[in-house]
């Protein structure tokens, strides 16, 4: 994890997180351990729980606990254990957290609902997932967000790397490790052509699969079409496909009705954050038999003998069934650490109780920390070129409206401002807006 180690080295003496008390709720794996150690090295105190009941690497949690870090997590927690663990991170003797590092919004949710007085003392929230960010914007819209929050998910260094490149590799890894499927010639439907969906499609197409996409957004549907995929409704392909993968961040995308129509042996899994994309509960009826064939792999059997192969009970398949590349996690972890440092050290007034994107300069910094790994040599602008382009030679090198950010993230930011709802064009800050966080970041 070169970026996070470089950050540790560069900021270690300054201790920019001294006095920060961070409640962490993320996947607990080897890479998270490096992040936790880094935050502590930078001066923070932490208490940590898992954001997913199946993704914890027990040996890592044990090693962290053995080293003295308060970590509350194990693989295979019940729903009740899950909330108990987060509770343990929030409420402890002589402990008033002042920062939250969340992945999915559960720590934020628990504090807001159960420990509201404590929540009001929080200085900042850093949120990693699409789902958690969505909840933060909803809270902000409802006027219930009393602290500033950093939307790390839509940082280009997160979305374009973790969601896209990491999923491109780990979807294959997780399907291979949990089934013996041969990909060539298989028909696959991927629900959602966002960053995660795009990564999965690239990988599966590369291995010779015939890939169908379902989408609700015409822009993503057009992208999928122009990338050579057929965009269909799920009902139109569900009887023929061999693999169904959800990657929408939405709920009930695959319903019992769809699963009733699937063919024998169809593999069903989810790459989205929460376990709501596939309606797994609808499979817990007396007419269906569940057979656990191995860890994270269930056969669900219909009365006529048809079976579907359900992976990780509809939870994140790659984090449940495979490992993810450390390099890409380093990019996300460095982004998270910088977001924590920024929120914790920001002078009063820089951030209000709203949801912010990390300034582009920081995204560029995170990227630059990782370039030495590839022996990549950046070209420097000449004075003349910098003047011609209207750029500072040290960056940022792109305006914030540059389409490294997805249109969707612009829309989310703008959705909070009624004046931006006038027309579709005005959704896009490129044309009209002068004042939103996307157009005018506080640097
Ligand atoms: N598995 C992983 O390692 C991993 C990594 C990053 C993100 N995620 C999670 O994956 C999910 C997707 O992330 P993303 O970055 O691709 O988000 P995204 O917003 O870029 O893409 C989601 C896409 O799904 C589409 N969609 C929504 N509802 C739909 C429906 N009912 N049918 C079809 N399409 C629908 C949206 O239009 C959008 O294009 C999120 O829950 C995110 O937290 C997982």
Number of strands: 15
State the major sheet. 8 strands, mixed
What is the CATH homology-level superfamily of the largest domain?
Answer: Adenosylhomocysteinase-like
> Can you tell me the overall shape?
globular
**What is the first-to-last residue Cα distance?**
27 Å
Approximately how much helix is present in the residues? 40-55%
Strand order of the largest sheet: 9-8-7-10-11-14-13-12
**Total number of distinct structural domains:** 2
**Number of helix segments?**
18
Q: What is the CATH top level name of the largest domain? A: Alpha Beta
- Say which molecules are bound, naming each kind only once: nicotinamide-adenine-dinucleotide
Structural class: alpha/beta
General description of the model:
There is one protein chain. The protein has helices at 2-11, 30-41, 58-66, 79-90, 106-114, 116-120, 130-141, 156-178, 195-206, 218-226, 234-237, 256-261, 317-321, 326-345, 360-370, 383-389, 407-415, 424-427, and strands at residues 21-26, 45-50, 71-72, 99-102, 124-127, 149-151, 187-191, 210-214, 230-231, 243-246, 267-270, 289-294, 297-301, 307-311, 355-356. The chain is an alpha/beta fold and 443 residues long. It has 2 domains: 2-158 and 324-430, Rossmann fold; 165-321, NAD(P)-binding Rossmann-like Domain (Rossmann fold), CATH 3.40.50.720. The chain has an 8-stranded mixed beta sheet, covered by helices on one side. The protein has a 7-stranded parallel beta sheet with strand order 3-2-1-4-5-6-15, with helices on both faces. Helix 2 runs parallel beside helix 14 (326-345). The longest helix is centred in the middle third of the chain and has 23 residues, at 156-178. Nicotinamide-adenine-dinucleotide (NAD) is lined by residues 129-131, 159, 162-163, 166-167, 191-197, 214-217, 220, 247-250, 253, 271-273, 316, 318-319, 406, 408.
């Amino acid at each position: 994890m070169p970026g996070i180690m470089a950050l540790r080295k560069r900021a270690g003496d300054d201790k920019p997180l001294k006095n920060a008390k961070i409640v962490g709720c993320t996947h607990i794996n080897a890479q998270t351990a490096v992040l936790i150690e880094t935050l502590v090295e930078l001066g923070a105190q932490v208490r940590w729980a898992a954001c997913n009941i199946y993704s914890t690497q027990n040996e890592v949690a044990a090693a962290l606990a053995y080293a003295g870090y308060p970590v509350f997590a194990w693989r295979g927690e019940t729903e009740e254990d899950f909330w108990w663990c987060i509770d343990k991170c929030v409420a402890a003797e002589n402990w008033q957290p002042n920062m939250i590092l969340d992945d999915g919004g559960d720590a934020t949710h628990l504090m807001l609902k159960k420990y509201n007085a404590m929540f009001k003392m929080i200085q900042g929230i850093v949120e990693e997932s699409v789902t958690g960010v969505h909840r933060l914007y909803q809270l902000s819209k409802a006027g219930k967000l009393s602290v500033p929050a950093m939307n790390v998910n839509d940082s280009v260094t997160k979305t374009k790397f973790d969601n896209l490149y990491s999923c491109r590799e780990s979807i294959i890894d997780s399907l291979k490790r949990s089934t013996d499927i041969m990909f060539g010639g298989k028909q696959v439907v991927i629900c959602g052509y966002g960053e995660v969906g795009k990564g999965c499609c690239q990988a599966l197409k590369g291995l010779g699969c015939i890939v169908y996409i379902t989408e609700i957004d015409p822009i993503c549907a057009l992208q999928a079409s122009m990338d050579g995929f057929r965009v269909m409704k799920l009902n139109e392909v569900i009887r023929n496909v061999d693999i169904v993968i959800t990657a929408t961040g939405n709920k009930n995308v695959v319903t019992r009705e769809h699963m009733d129509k699937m063919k024998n042996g169809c593999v069903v899994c989810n790459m989205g954050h929460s376990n709501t994309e596939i309606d797994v509960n609808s499979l817990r009826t007396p007419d269906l038999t569940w057979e656990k064939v191995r860890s994270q792999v269930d056969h669900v059997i219909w009365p006529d003998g048809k079976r579907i192969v359900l992976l990780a009970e509809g939870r994140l398949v790659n984090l449940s069934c495979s490992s993810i590349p450390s390099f890409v996690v380093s990019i996300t972890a460095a982004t998270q650490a910088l977001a924590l440092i920024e929120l914790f050290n920001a002078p009063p007034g820089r951030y209000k109780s709203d949801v912010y994107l990390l300034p582009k300069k920081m995204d560029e910094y995170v990227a630059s920390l990782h370039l030495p790994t590839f022996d990549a040599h950046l070209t420097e602008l000449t004075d003349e070129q910098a003047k011609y382009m209207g750029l500072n030679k040290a960056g940022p090198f792109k305006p914030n409206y540059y389409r490294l950010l997805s249109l969707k993230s612009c829309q989310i930011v703008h959705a909070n401002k009624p004046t931006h709802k006038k027309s579709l064009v005005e959704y896009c800050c490129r044309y009209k807006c002068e004042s939103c966080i996307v157009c005018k970041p506080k640097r």
